[in-house]
Amino acid sequence: MGIIIRSSAIHAAGCYTTSAIRKGARVAEYFGHKMTKDQADERYEASPITYLFGLGDGSMVIDGHSAAMFINHSCSPNCETEEIRGRVWIKAIRDIAAGEEITYDYCLYDGADDEHAHCNCGTRKCRGTMYSNTEMRKRKPAAKSRPKSPSERA
Length: 154
Fold this sequence. Notes:
By secondary structure, this protein is α+β, with helices and mostly antiparallel strands. The chain has a single domain (about 5-30, about 65-145), classed as Beta-clip-like (Beta Complex). It is built from 3 helices and 10 strands, in the order ββββαββββββαα. The strands form 4 sheets. It has a 3-stranded antiparallel β-sheet, with no helix packed on it. A hairpin with a 5-residue loop joins β1 and β2. The longest helix is centred in the last third of the chain and has 13 residues, at about 135-145. About 20% of the residues are buried.
């Protein structure tokens, strides 16, 4: 099994398989330097793009430096992530055809209140955001309670 990085309709570059992958197979490991979330926040404060992957309770992250950092989000993914002893594996949740883009649901949970993390996956089940359903339920009450801006009232 091999993977390559090339242009993606989802976001700039994506990770593609060069051969068929069976359901349940490990596709890649998301690896890189590990640091605390606070260190990552400080390091990437002014950066609009990061390749951080939260570990465990989210207090530690992996700063991605591998092909896996190019795996894009999809609301209807063909892979999922699995953390085993501090290592993150991307695993196929269905058979994947050769040449298909590898995706997983980012299930984002940590962002600024005004950050939308728009999804560009284009699937029929697209929820419009890379945030998890749980995170979106938490955000909904906050959005209802904030005062409307003049443009929203018009």
